[in-house]
C-alpha cells in the first residue's frame, strides 16, 4: 500500500475429526473472500494475477507484475490462465467461421453466440469431423450462420440436421465480386481493343468543343471511375451482362429479397458469362441456406468481429504460445 510492502498475519482455527473412517483428520478454517485451500495468495490477488495473465500472456504479464510489486513469475501466471467451462448446450443462434493459425497451412474454428455477441468455444482445426463432434456433444443450435465452407455444411447436416443454415451475405457479395473480376480478366482483349480504337479516334478527329457543365463539379476520383465504368460497358457485351447481373444481385442482397433468388439464378445460367454461370451454379447447390440468408436478419457479422479480435490476440503472442493458452485468452476476454 502506497509503494510499501504489507504483510497480513491471519490466524485461523484448526478442527480435528475423531472418526476413524474419516480420511481427513484435520480441517482448517477458511475466510470467505480471502483464503482458499492450497492457495499461495489471497483470492483477490489471484483474481488480479489471472486478469493480468489473460490480458498480456506470460512474459509481458510478469514484467507488469514486477512494476506493480506483485510477486508472480511467468510460469505461475500461465497456470492461472485457464479457460472457463463451456456450456453443455449450444446457443440458439450460433455463428461459425475459420481463422488461420498460419495462413495457408493450419486453421482453427471459432464458435460465437450471435444473440449474446460472445465466443462460445474455439476448436483446434476446421474439419467437419471436429465440428460435428462438438455439435453432438452440445445440442440446442436452431440457427447456424456460416460462410460458404462445405466442411461446416457437412457437419451441420450430420450432427444438427434440424438446424436452419444461414449463408452469410458478405461472403455472397465477395464471391460475386470475384466472378465479375474474373469475367473482366477473361475479356481483357476487348478492353485493350477499345483503348486502341479511342487512341486512333483522338488522332484523326479534332477535339470536341467543351460545353459548360450542367451540374456541380465532382471529385476527380468519382469522374475517373465513372468514365472507366462507361468505357468497359461499351467495350464488351459479356462484361455489360455481368455488370447488370451483379447490380441485380447486389440489390437483392442489400434489400433481402430472397424470393427473387431462383429467377436470378435462371437468368445467369441462361446467358451470363462463364464465371457468372459458375457463381449461379454454386448458389443453386446451397440454395436453401442462401435463401434464408437473403430473408432473415441473422448474419456472420458478429463472428467476423471476433475473428478480427482473435487475430490481434494471436499476433500479440507471436506464434510461441500453445493452443490452450490462446483458447483461454479468447474465451476469457470480453
Tags for this entry?
334 residues, alpha/beta, 5-stranded mixed beta sheet, 7 strands, elongated
Can you describe what's shown?
The chain is of the alpha/beta class. Helix content is 52%, strand content 11%. It has 14 helices and seven strands. The strands form two sheets. It has a five-stranded mixed beta sheet, sandwiched between helices. A two-stranded antiparallel ribbon has the order 1-2. Strand 6, helix 5 (150-159) and strand 7 form a beta-alpha-beta unit. Helix 6 (169-186) packs antiparallel against helix 9 and helix 8 packs across helix 9 (237-254). The relative contact order is 0.11. Mean pLDDT is 83; it is low at 200-206 and 208-212.
Q: How large, in whole angstroms, is the Cα Rg?
A: 30 Å
Major β-sheet annotation: 5 strands, mixed
Q: H/E element string?
A: EEHHHEEEHEHEHHHHHHHHH
Q: Percentage of helical residues?
A: 40-55%
Structural class: alpha/beta
Cα distance spanning the termini:
29 Å
**How would you write the strand order of the largest sheet?**
5-4-3-6-7
- What is the 3D form? elongated
State the total count of DSSP E strands.
7
Q: DSSP strand (E) fraction? A: 5-15%
Q: If helices are DSSP runs of H or I spanning 4 or more residues, what is the number of helices?
A: 14
In the predicted model, the low-confidence regions spanning at least 5 consecutive residues are 200-206, 208-212
Look at the structure and give the mean pLDDT.
83
Amino acid at each position: 500500500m502506497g509503494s510499501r510492502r504489507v504483510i497480513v498475519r491471519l490466524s485461523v482455527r484448526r478442527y480435528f475429526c475423531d472418526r476413524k473412517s474419516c480420511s481427513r483428520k484435520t480441517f482448517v478454517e477458511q475466510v470467505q473472500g480471502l483464503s482458499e485451500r492450497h492457495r499461495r495468495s489471497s483470492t483477490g490477488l489471484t483474481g488480479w494475477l489471472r486478469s493480468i495473465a489473460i490480458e498480456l500472456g506470460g512474459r509481458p504479464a510478469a514484467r507488469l507484475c514486477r512494476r506493480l510489486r506483485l510477486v508472480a513469475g511467468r510460469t505461475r501466471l500461465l497456470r492461472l490462465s485457464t479457460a472457463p467451462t463451456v456450456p453443455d448446450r449450444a446457443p440458439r443462434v450460433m455463428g461459425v467461421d475459420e481463422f488461420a493459425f498460419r495462413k495457408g497451412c493450419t486453421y482453427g474454428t471459432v464458435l460465437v453466440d450471435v444473440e449474446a455477441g460472445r465466443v462460445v468455444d474455439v476448436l483446434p482445426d476446421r474439419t467437419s469431423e471436429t465440428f460435428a463432434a462438438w455439435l453432438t456433444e452440445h445440442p440446442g443450435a436452431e440457427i447456424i450462420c456460416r460462410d460458404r465452407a462445405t466442411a461446416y455444411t457437412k457437419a451441420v447436416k450430420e450432427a444438427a440436421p434440424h438446424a436452419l443454415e444461414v449463408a452469410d451475405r458478405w461472403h455472397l457479395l465477395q464471391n460475386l465480386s470475384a466472378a465479375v473480376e474474373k469475367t473482366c480478366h477473361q475479356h481483357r482483349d476487348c478492353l485493350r481493343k477499345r483503348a486502341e480504337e479511342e487512341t486512333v479516334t483522338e488522332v484523326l478527329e479534332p477535339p470536341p468543343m467543351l460545353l459548360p457543365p450542367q451540374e456541380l463539379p465532382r471529385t476527380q476520383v468519382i469522374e475517373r471511375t465513372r468514365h472507366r465504368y462507361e468505357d468497359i460497358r461499351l467495350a464488351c457485351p459479356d462484361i455489360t451482362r455481368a455488370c447488370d447481373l451483379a447490380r441485380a444481385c447486389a440489390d437483392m442482397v442489400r434489400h433481402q429479397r430472397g424470393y427473387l433468388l431462383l429467377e436470378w439464378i435462371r437468368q445467369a445460367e441462361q446467358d451470363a458469362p462463364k464465371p457468372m454461370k459458375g457463381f449461379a451454379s454454386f448458389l443453386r447447390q446451397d440454395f436453401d441456406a442462401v435463401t434464408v440468408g437473403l430473408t432473415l436478419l441473422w448474419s456472420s457479422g458478429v463472428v467476423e468481429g471476433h475473428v478480427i479480435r482473435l487475430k490481434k490476440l494471436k499476433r500479440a503472442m507471436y506464434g510461441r504460445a500453445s493452443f490452450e493458452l490462446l483458447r483461454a485468452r479468447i474465451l476469457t476476454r470480453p
